[in-house]
Structure formats: C-alpha cells, structure tokens
Amino acid sequence: MKKISSTLLGLSMALAASAHANDKQLVIGTNNWAENIAVANMWKIVLEEEHGYEIELTDVGKSVLYSGLANNDFDISLEIWLPTTDKDFLAPYKDEIDVHDVWYEGTGLGIVVPSYVEIDTIDALRDSAEQFSYQGRPTIIGIDSGSAIAGLTDDAIDAYDLPMRQLYSSDPAMMAALDDAYQREEPIAVTLWSPHWAFAEYDLKYLEDTQGVYGESDDIFWFSRKGFAEDDPWLTQVLNEWHMDDDTLGGLMATIEQQGDPVEGARTWIGENRELIDTWLAAGE
C-alpha cells in the first residue's frame, strides 16, 4: 500500500507540475516599443509552441495598460521601468498591480542625436535649435504622446527653455525620420531609450542632461494583475528567472529588424539561443 500511495503521490505531483500546459489562456498587454514587441513575441512563441498556452497580445496605450491590469483585463505585461520613468503610471494602481522581478538592468532615456552632431548637452541644443528643423520648425521627434518619455521631454523643453516643439509620432515613424537624416548626415534630435536596436545600427549619443530631468537609470521589471503568481506559479517562477542584457536583447531586436517580422525574427533568435531560454524554463521545474 505504501508503494502504491507513493506512486500515486508522485503521479499527482507530476500532473500538478504540468498543469500549466493544459488550457492556459493568457492575455499579455503590450505597447509599441521595439523591445516590448520583441520580448512579447518571444514569450508568445515559447509558451504556445512548447508549453501549450494560448497567448493573446493586446497592444494598448500606457494608461489603458495599467488600468487594464488593475481591472483584470490583462494577465501580465512585460515592461515597467522603475523607480523613475513609470512611477506615475503605476501610482494610481499600486495596490491592484503586482510588480515582479527585474529582467533588464540599467536603462537609458533622453534626447539622442547622431554622433556626427557637434553638440553634447541639452543646454547646447537651446543655442543650436535652428539646425534641428523638421517640416520647417525646430523639432525634437518623439513617439506617442501618452508615453513616459514624451512627458519627460515636454518637461525638458520647459526646464531648458528650448525654442523647439516635440513632434509626437510613433517608434517606427521616429526611426524613419532618424534614418533619413542619418543617411544624409543632417542634424536631427529624437527621443530614444536603451535598450533599443537603433544603437546597434547607428552611431548615436545621448545629449547630457545636466538638470537631471530624465532621472537616474531605471531597471525593467515584468508586472501582472493581482494574484497572478498564485494562479500560475510555474510561469511566475520562469519569468522571475528571465534576464537579458544588451547583447541578448539587442540581438533579439536586431534579428527582428533584419527579418522585418517580429514573429519570424523572434523564432529565429529562439533557435539560436536555445540554451539561454532553457535556463529560464528550468526555474519552473
């Protein structure tokens, strides 16, 4: 009887350990940042094709992302920058959202110019604003108006008294403008962040933020609706083990950019980085 009971107990534990592979539906809230698209598609492929999940990626604005997690419309999201950049987005929902572990350390954020541009500080941008005209006006080209970097750039324009506008667009539109100016070696100022594939493709530099408007370096965490860790302890352990650096994340983003498709690019990168991914997955065993 003891032997049979032990066998049944072992079988029960094995079934519990693999429960995450059965009928698991997951909604991941995403935004249009290059690294967010990259890691969301990477995890969608790994979890669907190897662990039986059904994953829905839902692209929304920042404010909707946080309220959606708080209201259980989404299960997880893979990118929150703390302690500075996303603190104001998190603040109204800090009791309804769980922030989990860091997966990328040491972000960058600010106004970026090509390295051939002679100025090195945001202060110097004030006196050189006319050189950075876009569509007839001195311009810093940004991304969507609801992003944290857009708000900080508005603050920087005020703090440094820059005679410039911020032109809200999108990551792809901003990058298209950067590429066009870069190919012609013309001055251009854009809002950018690290990690981003642009730093692997172009010779760029951050303008020094002497007033500290953009804050100190952040880390990137993943976060979830309240109670997700109890509902899916396996995936929680796996994502808490997940870590990437400039080489691994930059490689993922560069592969996607080269292939022009986030799914195929992520799938190619997964095949080339099997050992790394297996170390993350092993945490759930």
Automatic annotation (TrEMBL):
<keyword id="KW-0813">Transport</keyword>
<dbReference type="GO" id="GO:0015226">
    <property type="term" value="F:carnitine transmembrane transporter activity"/>
</dbReference>
<feature type="domain" description="ABC-type glycine betaine transport system substrate-binding">
    <location>
        <begin position="24"/>
        <end position="270"/>
    </location>
</feature>
<keyword id="KW-0732">Signal</keyword>
<dbReference type="InterPro" id="IPR007210">
    <property type="entry name" value="ABC_Gly_betaine_transp_sub-bd"/>
</dbReference>
<keyword id="KW-1003">Cell membrane</keyword>
<dbReference type="GO" id="GO:0005275">
    <property type="term" value="F:amine transmembrane transporter activity"/>
</dbReference>
<dbReference type="GO" id="GO:0015871">
    <property type="term" value="P:choline transport"/>
</dbReference>
<feature type="signal peptide">
    <location>
        <begin position="1"/>
        <end position="21"/>
    </location>
</feature>
<dbReference type="GO" id="GO:0043190">
    <property type="term" value="C:ATP-binding cassette (ABC) transporter complex"/>
</dbReference>
<protein>
    <submittedName>
        <fullName>Glycine/betaine ABC transporter</fullName>
    </submittedName>
</protein>
<dbReference type="Pfam" id="PF04069">
    <property type="entry name" value="OpuAC"/>
</dbReference>
<keyword id="KW-0472">Membrane</keyword>
<dbReference type="GO" id="GO:0031460">
    <property type="term" value="P:glycine betaine transport"/>
</dbReference>
